[in-house]
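User: Can you predict the 3D structure of Olfactory receptor? Sequence below.
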Amino acid sequence: MEQGNNSRVTEFVLHSLSGPRELQLFYFAFFTLFYLSTLLGNFLIVFTVLSEPALHTPMYFLLSNLSFIDACVCTFATPKMIVDFLMERNTISFEGCIAQILFLHLFVGGEMLLLVSMAYDRYVAICRPLHYTAIMSIRKCTGFVVGSWFIGFLHSVSQLVFIVNLPFCGPNKVDSFFCDLPLVIKLACTDTYILEILIRLNNDILGLSCFVLLFMSYTVILVTMRRRSSAGMAKARATLTAHVTVVILFFGPSVFIYAWPSNNFLVDKILSIFYTVFTPLLNPLIYTLRNKEVMSAMQKLRRRKVNS
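Assistant: Sure. Here are the predicted structure tokens for Olfactory receptor:
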């Protein structure tokens, strides 16, 4: 902390999972394995979709972009958390903290909108199958992806507006393994009650809007599937199950942390680790294990590598 007429915080102290030295080393190995597995799984999907012409469809184009965002979500804070397990004191600069907040809301906001785009794709495929090729295209999906990143960027910038000019003169301890806006803003040396309400509204508007659109889309899809033959809907049902599972895994922890905050910091910390570390790994597992086309494409790629 700089001293002077107006002392200000130059770094924050992060509180990750605590424990004795042996447990910290276990955390280091465990989360390193998870992080590398997450990168491998998600980039394998991206590479498979790019390499296999049969997967050059709107659905798999959106899936590959979801995998890329998942890799970004697990990267904005996880590598620092892993390194911090080997450190005696876990600190992050003020600028680094602001950067984490920016990237968190950029990636999470973008992923929310991408999930809505994927729901729309499934709605058209199941509810209007004869018009699918006319409605959906790679070009339109590219617009969805660009729009998701753009709105995610606007959302992240709007979050920074609330905090970047606040006075921070101590304390500087954040009870999380990364800088999360609701926790950091409480450390400001001024009354932040109104700002906390505005931040909650900002998050709720984006999150609730995406959730309502997803709920409406999947409700219509489920009603449509019930009216049609189970044999003809078998593949669609498997794909839809994967989509809904990913949505639940993504929105579940976020609801508890942001929309329904708890005073139990340990619970919030565990949920934060879940949706920033574990969920990005579960997504590729869910999509690949339940998708015969992706599994078949991966097997083709493996045979090509072996034969080359």
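Residues 1-5 have pLDDT under 50 and may be disordered. DSSP finds eleven helices and three strands in the chain.
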